[in-house]
Amino acid sequence: TREDYPQTLPITSIEHTSLEVLDEEKARCFYVGLLGFKEIVRPDFDTDGYWLQGFGIKVHVAKAPTAGRVRYRREEAARREAKGWEGLPTGDHLAFLTDNLHGCEKILQEAAIPHKKVGPGPQGAVQIFFFDPDGNACDGK
């Protein structure tokens, strides 16, 4: 509640989101090839990965760096797969806007990417949910 935090941080925008993945090349193909992000310069870190930019946001993608993190990512992916569409639209997801939802649905069908169209919801929005190669949920509306 507001009483717990008497002042808000002076944040002006969201700079990036970060995704830990099992296979950075599969993720690159998905985010660059399907979603249209552009790869940008990334400093040399100990972990393999890359940075993307597009649509007013940056996405930092990093390969799971240790056996423990790989195990966790695999277990998390299995949990998400078992849940399927359950938890959406309120579960964690990246959301994108489009002016051609029908075109997005057609491309997802042609790419054989499972997706689910929902809506219209309370605000009249129709959305298409789908998952990246690591099971991270995405939606377009």
Automatic annotation (TrEMBL):
Keyword Manganese in the entry? The reply is no
Q: Which residues form the VOC domain?
A: 13-141
Q: Does the keyword Metal-binding apply?
A: yes
Q: Where are the transmembrane segments?
A: none
Q: Name one Pfam family in it.
A: Glyoxalase
Quote the Gene3D superfamilies the UniProt record gives: 2,3-Dihydroxybiphenyl 1,2-Dioxygenase, domain 1
Which InterPro entries does the annotation name? Glyas_Bleomycin-R_OHBP_Dase (IPR029068), Glyas_Fos-R_dOase_dom (IPR004360), Glyoxalase_1_CS (IPR018146), VOC_core (IPR037523)
What molecular function terms (GO) are annotated for this protein? lactoylglutathione lyase activity; metal ion binding
Keywords tagged on the record = Metal-binding
Q: PROSITE patterns per the record?
A: GLYOXALASE_I_1, VOC
Query: What is this protein's record name?
Result: VOC domain-containing protein
Please tell me the species this chain comes from: Oxyrrhis marina (Dinoflagellate)
